[in-house]
Amino acid sequence: MTPAPAPVLIDAHHHLWDLDQRPQPWLDDPDLTSIRRTFTPGDLRSTATAPIAGRHLHNTVAVQCMPNVPETEDLLALAEQEPLIGAVVGWADLTSPAIGEVLDRLLARPGGTYLRSLRHLVQGETDPGWLQRPDVERGLAVARDRGLSYDVLIRSHQLDQAIRLAERFPDLPQVLNHAGKPPLARRELADWRRQMQRLAAHQHVVCKLSGLITEADHDSWTTADIRPVWDILLTAFGPDRMMFGSDWPVANLAGGWNRWAATVDELLGDCAENEIHALLAGTATAFYRLPALG
């Protein structure tokens, strides 16, 4: 009999930054004052104490914030030293003719084996077809050919780009960050629902259950506000194509790691054990090629 997978929890989306080592200019926004400080793996380990379905934090995926290669190099070096980090989502300029050389250097450097995916802040791009630009598509093909996946960071009005990306790159593993940032605060989910159903029809695309509390009202959201999004995602993707992520420390703006974990624990109440395992560990392990569980 095959033994059951170990009951562990993987946080498939969090950030780290050391402001003494590398500035994060985006934190200059006055609304972000409360997270304008250094956050380390030790901070995450001491913060993330709430269990989900009886599981405690076991492994994580550290995700880039800045569109520069040095930050990615920092994260790779940190992953080599820090047992908690199992993979890194980095950044490289997809539009650069030198993208292949840059990725080869990153993969060959100390900690380079932890680079499993790339991400660009498409949410900040004004071009409504940025992901379909010829130079971007060339860069995505180069990343794919080096065995990397792609983390799709968009806002809900950009979901058409994600759908076209899925259509044009069926052999590039893709994960939608923060469920495409549904407009939870406005409670206007109809258009987002339709687009998510279209995206989920592409079986090589998976979805992160992350970043939702910062799309809701930071001060007054409840589990009831999150549940409609949960129900839509569960129907569209199923637990085998969903993965838990905290978006810590950005999540601190709207309640923090433990409150989000408690919310996910409640949402999982009607799920079977195999579904819980997929969402809390299995999907992330497969997508990011994390160490085998067990």
From TrEMBL:
<dbReference type="InterPro" id="IPR052350">
    <property type="entry name" value="Metallo-dep_Lactonases"/>
</dbReference>
<comment type="similarity">
    <text>Belongs to the metallo-dependent hydrolases superfamily.</text>
</comment>
<dbReference type="Pfam" id="PF04909">
    <property type="entry name" value="Amidohydro_2"/>
</dbReference>
<dbReference type="InterPro" id="IPR006680">
    <property type="entry name" value="Amidohydro-rel"/>
</dbReference>
<dbReference type="GO" id="GO:0016787">
    <property type="term" value="F:hydrolase activity"/>
</dbReference>
<dbReference type="InterPro" id="IPR001763">
    <property type="entry name" value="Rhodanese-like_dom"/>
</dbReference>
<feature type="domain" description="Rhodanese">
    <location>
        <begin position="250"/>
        <end position="269"/>
    </location>
</feature>
<dbReference type="InterPro" id="IPR032466">
    <property type="entry name" value="Metal_Hydrolase"/>
</dbReference>
<protein>
    <submittedName>
        <fullName>Amidohydrolase</fullName>
    </submittedName>
</protein>
